[in-house]
Amino acid sequence: MSVEQNTDHQPLNDTRTHPLEPLSVTEIRLSADVVRRAHDLGAGMRFETIELKEPSVDAPSDIPTPRRTFVCTYDTVTGDLYEAVVDLDNRTLESWLQRPGAQPRIGPDEFLNAERLALEDPRFVSALENRGVTDLSLVCADPWSVGRCGLPGEDHHRLVQTIVWVRSGANDNQFAHPVEGLCAIIDINNGEVLSVEDTGPEIPWNDSNYASRFQSEFRTDLKPIEVVQPEGASFRVDGYAVEWAGWKFRIGFTAREGVVLHDLQLKDNDRWRPVMRRASIAEMIVPYGSPHGLHARKNAFDCGEYGIGAMANSLELGCDCLGSIHYFDGILSDIHGDAYVIKNAICMHEEDTGILWKHVDFRTGDVDTRRGRRLVISFIATVGNYEYLYYWYLHLDGSVELEVKATGIINTAGIDSQAARAFGTEVIPDVLGQIHQHIFCARLEMSIDGPDNAVMEINTEVLPEGPENPVGNAFQAVETLLETEAMGKRNASIGTNRYWKIVNRAERDELGRHAGYRLLPTSCVTALGGPRSQLGLRAGFTRHHLWVTPTHETQRWPAGDYVNQSQPGEGLPRWTQADRNIVDRPITVWHCFGLHHLPRPEDFPVQPTVSCSMMLTPDGFFPSNPTLDVPPASSTHSCHV
Question: In the prediction, which pLDDT does 637 show?
């Protein structure tokens, strides 16, 4: 069913907006209006997503691309969810599809409403009163997803569970005071508290605060460090298009992923060469290791269940980023189909990275040194207790790096038994920081010198002693072509120093080598949940550090399209059962990496930043070091002390 075109208006895209330009406030509102006029779901109508429908990988580059949006809407009365595609140019609805059984993400407004419902429930209030808590303004009931919790009839409810803390006073750190064993299960569609669990111990009341207002004095032995760029930044920005030091690309931003990098290209002499068509973190999961009570259900998919971009901070000049800064706003949709703007959601700046390369010719005394720098594209999201800091780095040598940092406050629990202590670290008396993991999945649509790519696995093998290796010192790199999706499911191997190389086999240099990029698995962790755990059932993508699939516009999310209360096996495990060919065609490389975190006492009351990363670096893409033209530099602001 389509909405009739309104001939009183000109097409919205009469200015020939770039096909990857993020949606404007006007486009988001128009998309919701078109869907409502075609399919008004009534008072229960809500919007999960209104985002740009990006051109498909096989869209002709010489034909103007219609401006389209993807809209996900749902009905809180019936529980039904629908997907729509809107043609913005003509203000029409192109498609309308129901997705039976799917549950939308949980929006920020729904979080706040769930907490309100818990604090209005007499059973919940009574449980707090039994622990001596009567001032409900001090109670923090954080709604979390439940996954597949085994609740009778759970498929007919859209559920959250509350994890509860309480402040001892205004501005106190509530995570020092977990209300262990108190949990409300809430249907956020119906606005109903289905059950209240109340099994835990007394509340620990030792305060442990970190904010500046609680510090009696600050150290005086640190002198200021300033980042000075007297001639300004080296990048050029046109809307969301960026050029910097031989790189060019476009910036995108979605509610589910946060920052997206589009169409990364490198300049090689006078030729722009493609490297990646699209890059983002498509999913992350934080599984906790305690089997006690509600903690067995703590497996947060921060992209698929909540939307990490929707929780982005507005960044502050001179605090979150230093130097000559360019900010990009994030424009997103709310559950009512209106648009809102996260000011300064994305920060872009340059950083010195130390010595890029150096050599001293000890015979002549000649010294050549070049300093490196990188372009940083970052955003920060607050997800309940944790802050996640995403940093995409573009380097002068053509390397692409993603570093994810975690700070904020560990998710604390009360200690209700001696057995509970085995699953974490007691950070203050009777307060446990539970063992957990943070696993990220990067989705990389590769396009090295064009769309048709392949992946080689490189293992370094030791030759057995014998005539070819008489003294046993020999080892060599062995390449294996990954031909199908089954072969493309791979894990890191320290024993063979394994890495993967994405290549364009149609392109060779004068020595016969294929242009390529190495994917270096620098921060791989082993996902530890068993096959019957939430991680085992619903996050099968974590079982391998590498997946390779044919690029398909409908296969964007490694844990499936709708992760909230999802069924087992969705996403990568299901798609790759087809065992499709992955050689010399448009491919998507998925890389899982992360952090394994047994908290330390030093991680409380606020956690110092820890980080994990992934790296793509040129291998045969250039004939030699591409940074020989970086000029020598000497800082005029450095001095002897």
Answer: 78
Largest CA distance in the chain: 85
- Determine contact, residues 519/551, Cβ cutoff 8 Å: no
* Of the candidates 623, 154, 204, 206, the residue with the CA atom closest to the CA atom of residue 413: 204
Ranges of the chain whose pLDDT falls below 50: 1-15
Identity of the residue numbered 263: D
Length of the chain: 641
Supply the Cα-derived Rg of the chain in whole angstroms.
26
Q: Tens of pLDDT along 219-263?
A: 999 999 889 999 999 999 999 999 999 999 999 999 999 999 999
- How many Cβ atoms sit within 10 Å of the Cβ of residue 426? 15
Tokens of 335: 């559950």
Dihedral sign computed on CA atoms, order 499, 500, 505, 507: negative
Q: Which of 301, 343, 368, 272 is nearest to 630 (CA)?
A: 368
Contact (Cβ atoms closer than 8 angstroms) between residue 392 and residue 261: yes
Alpha-carbon span 500 to 502, nearest angstrom: 7
Positive/negative CA dihedral, 312, 316, 318, 323: positive
Residue 380 CA neighbour count, 13 Å, CB half: 21
Catalytic residues, by residue number, are: 302, 386
Name the residue among 586, 580, 578, 575 with its Cα closest to residue 541.
575
Tokens of 445: 């649509």
For 375, phi then psi, to 5°, come to -95, 130
Nearest to 398 by CA among 510, 245, 285: 245
C-alpha angle with apex 40: 559 to 3, nearest 5 degrees? 95
CB crowding 283-295: b at 16 or more within 10 Å, else e: bbbbbbbbebbbb
Helices 108-120 and 122-130, axial angle in degrees (round to 10):
70
Report phi then psi at 260, rounded to 5.
-125, 135
Taking 3-state DSSP, the helix, strand and coil percentages for the chain, each rounded to the nearest 5, stand at 15, 40, 45
How many whole angstroms separate alpha carbon 637 and alpha carbon 229? 10
554 closest CA partner among 65, 54, 18, 31: 54
How far is 523 from 594, CA to CA, in rounded Å? Answer: 6
